[in-house]
Amino acid sequence: MTTTILRGGRVADPAAGTEAVADVVIRDGSVLAVSREPVPATDATVVDVSGLVVGPGFVDLHSHVHSIAGQRLQAFDGVTTNLDLEAGLMPLERAYAEAAAAGRVLNYGFSASWTDARGQVLAGLGPTARFDASAGLLGNLDWQRTSSPAELTAWLGLLERELADGALGIGVLMGYAPRSDPAEYLAVARLAATAGAPTFTHVRELVEADPTTPVDGSSEVAVAAAETGAAMHHCHVNSTSRRHVDRVLRTLEQARSAGSRVTVEAYPYSMGSTSVGAFFLAPERLPAWGLTPSSVVMLGTGERVADVRRLAELRELDPGATCVIEFLDERDEADRALLRRALAFPDAIVASDAMPLEWPDHRHDTREWPLPPGASTHPRTAGTFARSLRLMVVEHGVWTWPEAFRRCSYLPARVLDEVAPSMRTKGLLSPGADADLVVLDPETLTDHATVTDPVRPSGGVRHLVVGGTFVIRDGVLDADAYPGRPVRGVPA
Ligand SMILES: [Zn+2]
Fold it and tell me: Based on the domain organization, do 31 and 116 belong to the same domain?
């Protein structure tokens, strides 16, 4: 196997919190050495990275991208491992088999899907290992209801089987079944604690936005973590908390300082994305979020929803259709500061919530690169990491480079250490670490994706290495590179 030397970059080690000019030596898919003295080039391929920042590739805990095209967009955003842990896929065995058969550019993995387990038991719908099929379930009223004790036992059993098959935890879309009995959520947390697996929750509504919610969504995570000892991850705190983010972060901080295993993630956009049939987009619920129908824009057609009547019609027509929701006003500095506070929260993890790509002919993937025009998705799919680093390192100086890599690579990998021992060599830049690396140009690093041009790749990722193989070299994608490997859990 060949040896590669990344020569003379600014090497950021997030575990040590250091940045130093050094050579990084890669062999057999691992980091062999990090040396502040120049390493002799004997037989090695030498890549000059002087002036560039070298760090462990980003580990995205929250990506609904299950495609080659989507993974390539994320590669240009610095991601080397993309995981769908909030929604998950079911059956897991089939999801892993299909990804392996198609080939993957980045490392990949899935949690057990609470949505599909409920769908099978409460609505009689067999799982298909497809994200769009699960998304279509979200508006289904049978699926949303509280389970009988027998039903609860049945779908917990399905989740348990998926964990035994190597799921990376349990993904819980509680915000889409927000009237279901909180006791069910506790049962899921108990199962996770027993299995030594984390949970990933899209929380139900906050009391501020819906005083009739059976329990405050963020407090529910904190309480379940305290009562069961499970490791519980709060997804996209920016989009579910909106202007209540300071209060929610306080709730999570109290839980952590009391010893609960609560982690949190955020993405740097003022708009969210979901299926138009989601519970919280019912016309009568919008005012609680300070929204109107025109805050909702349909992806694909670009239609800005005109009024309540049209919103109801779209929800009826195709509840699984994807839309964008403008929940903060990016022209307002106070709202922009809210977003930065979510990212700046101690130990908050950056995660994209990347959404599937879809072309007008309903294709979801292609091996063509550059991507054929016309694909729609939320711009966070392509831009989350470059945008976070531009904001937090380059423009506002809140994070150093090692701190940025701690948020984007080190901490997310640690969330999975217990369930998936293979993660213990990711998110690191020291001898023995996996050679999943990103080399960034701090001068040009930025997101380019927008609502009108959502699949424009980020700029500034000069090299991206996955398991020792270059996916991007000198800013150019290697269209023959499929080095992505599965990440799977090991049952407790
Ligand atoms: Zn979500």
Answer: no
| Digit-coded pLDDT (tens) for 360-387 | 998 999 999 999 999 999 999 999 999 9
**Does the pLDDT of residue 24 top 70, yes or no?**
yes
Ligand 1 centroid vs 235 CA: distance in angstroms?
7
Distance 205 CA to ligand 1 centre (A): 12
Helices within 33-102 (DSSP H only):
68-75, 92-102
- Ligand 1 center–CA 173 separation, angstroms: 7
Give the helix/strand (H/E) hosting 24: strand 18-27
Query: pLDDT band for position 135 (50/70/90)?
Result: confident
Same domain, 39 and 188: no
Ligand 1 geometric centre to CA of 354 (Å)? 10
- Please indicate, yes or no, whether residues 441 and 340 belong to a single structural domain of this protein: no
Q: How far apart (Å, rounded) are the C-alpha atoms in residues 104 and 71?
A: 8
- Identify the DSSP state of 442: T
CA of 274 to the centre of ligand 1 (A): 7
Give the list of residues 6+ apart from residue 56 with CB closer than 8 angstroms, or none: 14, 80, 405, 409, 410, 426, 427, 428, 429, 433, 436, 437, 438
149 C-alpha to ligand 1 centroid (Å):
27
